[in-house]
Amino acid sequence: MKIEYYIVLSIALFCIGIVGVLARRNAIIIFMCIELMLNAVNLLLVAFSKMHHAAKGAEVATAGVDGQLFVFFIMVVAAAEVSVGLAIIVMMYRNVHSVDVNFLNRLKH
Amino acid sequence: MNNIIDLAWLVPLFPLAGFLLNGLFRNSLSRPLTGIIGSGAVLASFVVSVLLFLEVKKGNTGVAHLFNFIEVDKLTIPFAFLVDQLSSLFLLIITGVGFLIHVYSAAYMKEEEPPHFARYFSYLNLFVFSMLLLVMGSNYIVLFIGWEGVGLCSYLLIGYWFKNTEYNNAAKKAFIMNRIGDLGFLIAIFWMIAKLGTVTFSTPDSGGVLDKVGDLTAVDITGITLLLFVGATGKSAQIPLYTWLPDAMAGPTPVSALIHAATMVTAGIYMVARSNILYTSSAITQTVVAGIGLATAILAATIALKQNDIKKVLAYSTVSQLGYMFLGLGVGAYTGAVFHVMTHAFFKALLFLGAGSVIHAMHHEQDIRKMGGLKRYLPITHITFLVGCIAIAGIPPFSGFFSKDEILAAAYLRNPLYYVLGAAGALLTAFYMFRLYATTFLGSFRGTEEQKHHLHESPSLMTIPLIVLAVLSVIGGWVGIPEVLMHGAHSLGDFLAPVFAASAEKMEAHSISHSTEYLLMGVTVIGAAIAIFVATARYRRNPELGEPTGFGKILANKWYVDEFYQWLIVRPVNWLAKVLNSFVEKEFIDWLVNGVGKLVNYSSRQVRLLQSGQVGSYVLLMVLSILVFLVLQFFIKK
Amino acid sequence: MSITQVLFFFLSALALGSAVMVVISRNPVHSVLWLIITFFAISGHYFMLNAQFIAIVNIIVYAGAIMVLFLFVIMLMNLNAETEPQKNKWMKLAGVVSGGCLLLVMVAALKEAEVKGQTTEMVTGNIGLIKNLGQALFTQYVVPFEISSVLFLSAMVGTVLIGKKDAKEQN
Questions:
Q1: How many angstroms from the chain centroid is the CA of residue B622?
Q2: Could you tell me the CATH number of the domain that includes residue A23?
Q3: Which end of chain A has fewer beta carbons closer than 10 Å to its terminal beta carbon, N or C?
Q4: pTM above 0.90, yes or no
Q5: Element containing residue B64 per DSSP (H, E)
Q6: What is the pLDDT along chain C (171 residues), one digit of tens a residue?
Q7: 8-state DSSP, B248
C-alpha cells in the first residue's frame, strides 16, 4: 500500500478532530476529538514504522520498531491524560452544572 | 642575569599597593601613617628603580613579560614592561622627584582631615603608578593605559578640593583637553595596528613598530606621528591644547609640582622620544613639532611676563619649557629633550615646592603683589627658590644651562631662525622668573599686618625636599656637559645613545664648529644675565602693583586665547546643543517616544479584545496560526 | 483490486465516516459509540499492517477502558441531546472552514514530500509482534517505560485529588 494513502487518511482524521474541537462546546466531545487526533497520529506512526521496515528491514531486523513503541507510549500518556482530564471535567460539572467550555471564560480575568 | 629586570613589575606594584591601602582604609588611618604608607611606597619604587638603573647601566636591558593583555587572531598585545636606558632614566626621575614631593606633601597638607589626607595620598600614589605604567609599558597600549591613568589622576587631583566649583571646572577642563589629545593618540594606535599588526615598540626579532618603520609609506608615518603628536600636545600642554595646564593650578601646590611640572607633562616628551625613529623618518612632522614647540615656548613666556599669581607664572613657564623640549624633539635632539626633561623636573619641582612653601607661609595667598621682602622670613625657601630661578634662566653651571644649550645648539644646526627665537624665549624666561623672584622675595613686605605676624619658615619636612632638589638643580646638569667644554663628559648622551641609535644613523651628522658653539652659548648666557639684572633692578624697588595697560593687558589676559576658544568652540557647541534640545529633542524625539507609547497603548487596547477567555476562540487562533506557518513553510519558502 | 486494498478502503471509509459522526452527533452517548467504531476501524488498519500488539492494545485501552470511562462520565452527568450546548452558526462555520483549510494545505504539502512513492509492508513483517516489541521495550526503552509508570502514579494521585470533594463542601 502506498504511504500517501495512510498520510492522507491520518490528515483527514486529524482535521476532523480539529473541526470537532473548534465547532463543539461540550467539553467531553472536545476531549474525544482530541483522542481522535491522537489516534490519527498513532496510525501515521505505525504506517511509517512499517514503511521504514519495508525499506530497511533487510539490513536491520528491528528497523521501525521504535515507531510502534512510540505509539505505545502515546497510549500510555493518553490514558493518564484521560483520567486527569475527565476528573477535571467532573469537577467542573460539579461546580457549574454544565460541561460548556464557554462557561470557563473566566480565564479572561 | 636578567633577574632584576624580571622584577621590574615591583616598581609600579608599590604605588598601587599604597593607593589601595590609603584608598580603602582612609577612614581608619591616621595622618602620619598615611604619609608613611604613601611616601614609603614611592621610596620602595625608587629603590627598585635605582637597582634597575644600575643594571641597565651595565648594559643589560630587557622586557619583563607579565601576561598577554589582548589576543585576537594575529594581534597579540602583551602586558609587559620594558626596561631600557630611556625608561630607567624616567623611572628615576618619577620615583625620585615623586618621593620628595610625597614627603613635602605630608607636611603641606597636614591641615586636611585624615580621610581627605588619605584620599590625597591615594591619588598621588595612583598617579605615580599610572606614570610608571606609562614609561615602563613595552607597547603603545600599556603606554596608553598609563596615559589615561595620569589623565584621570590629574582630574582627581586638580579637583581635589571638590567643593569649589571653579576648581572643578579647572579639573574638567584638564580632563577634556587631555581627552581631545587622547583621541589622536588612540587613532594613531589603531592606524599602527591596521598597518603593522603590532603595537609593541621593538622585539628581538625585529617585529615591533619601531623595527618596521621601513614597511610604512611616508603618508602613514606622517599620519601616525602627527596623531601621536596630537596626543602629546594634550598631555604636554602645547598649542593648541595648553590652556588646561595654567588652570590646573587649582590643585594643591605639591600636585602642581608632581603632575604639572615634573612628571605628567613629560609624558608627551617621553612618548615622542620613545618613537624617535618614526619622527626622524618624517620631515614634515619634525617641522610641525619644532614649530609648535617654539611657538608654545614664546607664547607662554610672553604670557608669564604679566601674571601675578605665583603659581600661574610657574605654570606658564612650564608650558614654555615644554615648548623647548618639543623644539628639541623636532630638531632631532632627542637626548637634549630628555636631558631637559630631567633638569626641568628638578628645578621646576623645586620652584613649585618653593612656591608652595611661600603660599604656606602666607596662609594661602598666591598673589605676588601682596608679597615682597620674604627673603628675611623664609631664608631656606629663598635660597632654594633663587637656585631654581637661576637654573631655569640658564646660567652656567646650573643644570638648566646645559640642557637648554644642547637644544638650542641643535636648533641652530637645523635652522638658525629656531635658535634666534629660542634664545629670545630664553631671555623672556630669565626675565619673568626674576620678576617673580624680585617681586616675591625682595623689596618690602606688602601683605597685611596679620600675615606679617604669622610669617614663618616651613617645617623641615618641607625644607629638606627643597634642599635636595636645589642641590640636584645645581649638579643635575653635570651629567651632560657639552663636548666643547669638556671632552667625553656627556655621560647622559652616551647612556641614552642605544635608544636613539637608529635615529642618529638616519640623520646626517652635522657638527658645529667650536667657535660658533661658544658664540651661541655666550649670547644666551649674557642675554639671560642682562635680563636677570634688568628684572631684578626694576622689580625689587617698584613692583607692578596696578592693573596692566595696553599690550601688557593683552598678555595679562593670556592673549585672550581662552576667550577665543570660548568664541570659536564653546559658543557654537552650546548653540548647537540648544537647537538640538529645543527642536530635535522636543519636536522629534519626544514625538517619536510618545508616539510609540500611544501606538502600543492603542493597539493593545484593540488586541485585548482577542483575549475573550473562550477556549474555543483560542483554539481557532491556534489552528489558523498553524495554517499560516504551514503555508509559509511549504509554499512561500520556495 | 486485491483484498488488502478493498479492506483498506473499507476501513478508511468506516474510520472517516464514524469520525465525522463523532463530531456531528448531538447526543454525547452517540458520539462515544461512533468513536469506538472509529477506534475499531483504526485497529483494523493496525492488523493489516501486521502491528498486532498495537492493534490489541488499541482495542483494550482505547476502545475498552478509555471509552468506557467516557461513557461512565457522560452517564453520570446525565447528558443528552437536549442539554447539549450549541455554538452559534458562524463559529461552527469558522471551525469547519479553518479545519478544511488545514486539510487542504497539508495534503497539498504532501505533493512535495520526500516519502512520496514509498510503500508500507502489508500483512507480513514481524516487528509488530509482541516478542520483538517487548525486546526493544525492555532493553533500549526500559528507562522511559519505568518513567511512564511514575507518570501513571502521579496521574492517579492527581485524579484522586481533583475528584475528591473539598473538605469545606462536606461540612
A1: 69
A2: 1.10.287.3510
A3: C
A4: no
A5: strand B62-72
A6: 788 889 999 999 999 999 999 998 888 889 999 999 999 999 999 999 888 899 999 999 888 888 998 998 888 888 776 766 666 788 888 888 888 988 988 888 887 777 777 888 787 878 888 888 898 889 989 999 999 999 999 999 999 888 786 656 554
A7: G
CB pairs under 8 A between B and C: 28
Residue C104 to residue C90: CA distance in whole angstroms: 21
Q: What is the DSSP letter of B309?
A: B
C residues 71..130 contacting A (CB < 8 A)? 73-74, 76-77, 79, 84-87, 91-92, 94-96, 98-100, 102-103, 106-107, 110, 113, 115-122, 125, 127-128
A68: amino acid identity, one letter: Q
Following DSSP, what letter does each residue of B67-93 receive, concatenated?
EEEEEETTEEEEEEEEESHHHHHHHHH
Spell out the residues 6+ positions from residue C153 whose beta carbon is closer than 8 angstroms to its own: none
The answer to whether B211 and B198 are in contact (CB under 8 A) is no
Q: Is residue C36 part of a domain?
A: yes
Query: What is chain C's Cα-based Rg?
Result: 21
Is there a domain that residue C69 lies in?
A: yes
Nearest to B209 by CA among B128, B133, B139, B108: B139
Residue numbers of the domain that contains C134: 129-165
At B456, give phi and psi (nearest 5°). -155, 155
Q: How many domains does chain C have?
A: 2
Q: Which of residues 19-58 of A touch C (CB under 8 A)?
A: 19-26, 28-29, 31-33, 35-36, 39, 42-43, 46-51, 53-55, 57
Q: Which residues contact B359 (CB under 8 A, 6 or more apart)?
A: B253, B310, B311, B365, B366
User: Which backbone phi and psi does B372 adopt, to 5 degrees?
Assistant: 100, 140
Out of A21, A25, A108, closest to residue B613 by CB:
A108
**Both C9 and C78 in a single domain?**
yes
Q: Residue B66 is inside which H or E element, if any?
A: strand B62-72
Q: Is B609 helix (H, G, I), strand (E, B) or coil?
A: helix
Give the type of residue at B202: S
Distance, CA of A63 to CA of C130 (rounded, Å): 15
What is the count of structural domains for chain A? 1
Q: Which domain holds residue A76?
A: 3-108
Interface check for A88 against chain B (CB to CB < 8 A): the answer is no
Tell me chain A's radius of gyration from C-alpha atoms: 18
Q: How far is A54 from chain C (nearest CA, A)?
A: 5
Cβ of C103 within 8 Å of Cβ of A15? The answer is yes
C76 and C7 inside one domain: yes
CA proximity to A50, closest of B243, C49, B369? C49
What's CA B44's distance to the chain center, in Å? 23
